[in-house]
Specification:
Largest sheet: none
CATH superfamily of one domain: ABC transporter involved in vitamin B12 uptake, BtuC
Order of helices and strands: HHHHHHHHHHHHHH
Number of strands: 0
Radius of gyration: 20 Å
Structural class: mainly alpha
Strand content: under 5%
């Protein structure tokens, strides 16, 4: 995990250099140590550093969200996107943004939490019709996501001049994100990650069957809703800031398991570190590959995560404590 954290820190530092105005390593070090309020200092402290930190925090939160959802359902296909959580968080935010503009954006994470929870519950209910098997969970989540996506598109068509900004946001990205966005997102991500670390013993038991976990004293009726809320909290915090960011919650937990961590608490930590590295790298590529323009981060995470996930499937490494058919 230390190496992954160092790699993430290096990516964040590299992210301070490129942009419409390229900065040298010496210039970045100078303004980091002695901010002077000039253009280089503004570029680093106001634009590039908070954006890079936003990406890292979002990646860590989404990765842990995917980890918790996979553990809760004992399903290797579960993640915020496939279970409908992301669509459930995005759709009501878009509705409130367009039709209730007077609502402060500070309430958007709460709106996303409620929407994501409702969407997840519907997905799980649909999946239970097929005894909760991974295929039925994926199909249920896809159905919920398509339905909510249709609502989102309809609202976008009614948005008028606001639709352009909303379309870029829905593509997933950190353009123009500042310290205030980090402050908005951080409590929700910390809640999910810290909650997962604090409940690592319960989470390790959830990798067993429900009967085995109950036999070891786990109160399923208490901890299942708690883990579900903890899994949705990071999505609720990240969605208003960055929109949907694909594949991170799906791929990061599997990559972490390939490293065979010594315990559940290490597995959670490594998952968060991998998620931070993936999204930080994707954001760096997205804003440097076509300077002065930039691509949505959601596209880059899909391009990075898609091949990784295909590789895991082809190598037969997509495993979990449960049936994967």
């Amino acid at each position: 995990m230390t190496l992954i954290a160092i790699a993430t820190a290096m990516v964040i530092c590299l992210g301070l250099l490129p942009g419409a105005k390229m900065l040298s390593v010496g210039a970045v070090l100078r303004v980091l140590l002695e901010p002077d309020g000039k253009i280089d200092s503004i570029l680093v402290w106001t634009l590039r550093l908070p954006r890079s930190l936003d990406a890292a925090v979002a990646g860590a939160g989404l990765a842990v969200s995917g980890y918790l959802l996979q553990t809760l359902t004992r399903n290797p296909l579960a993640d915020p996107g496939i279970t409908g959580v992301t669509a459930g968080a995005i759709a009501p935010i878009v509705v409130f943004f367009v039709f209730v503009p007077s609502l402060s954006s500070a309430y958007y994470p709460l709106v996303g939490l409620l929407g994501g929870t409702a969407a997840a519950l519907v997905t799980f209910w649909v999946a239970r019709g097929g005894n909760g098997r991974p295929l039925h969970l994926a199909l249920g989540g896809l159905s919920v996501s398509l339905f909510l996506g249709a609502i989102t598109i309809y609202v976008l068509l009614r948005a008028g001049p606001q639709s352009t900004a909303l379309l870029f946001w829905i593509s997933g990205g950190f353009s123009g994100r500042t310290w205030s966005h980090l402050v908005l997102m951080l409590p929700w991500v910390i809640t999910g990650v810290a909650g997962a670390l604090a409940l690592h013993r319960v989470i390790s038991m959830f990798s067993l069957s429900d009967h085995a976990a109950a036999g070891m004293g786990v109160q399923l009726r208490l901890w299942k809703p708690v883990l579900l809320i903890l899994g949705i909290c990071p999505v609720a915090g990240v969605a208003p800031v960055a929109g949907p960011v694909a594949f991170v919650g799906l791929a990061a937990p599997h990559i972490a398991r390939l490293l065979r961590p010594a315990s559940t608490i290490w597995e959670i930590g490594i998952t968060a570190a991998i998620g931070a590295l993936i999204v930080s790298t994707a954001d760096l590529i997205a804003r440097t590959v076509a300077i002065p323009k930039e691509l949505p981060v959601g596209i880059m995470t899909a391009l990075l995560g898609g091949p990784i996930f295909v590789y895991l499937i082809q190598r037969g490494r997509l495993d979990f404590q449960g049936d994967t058919t």
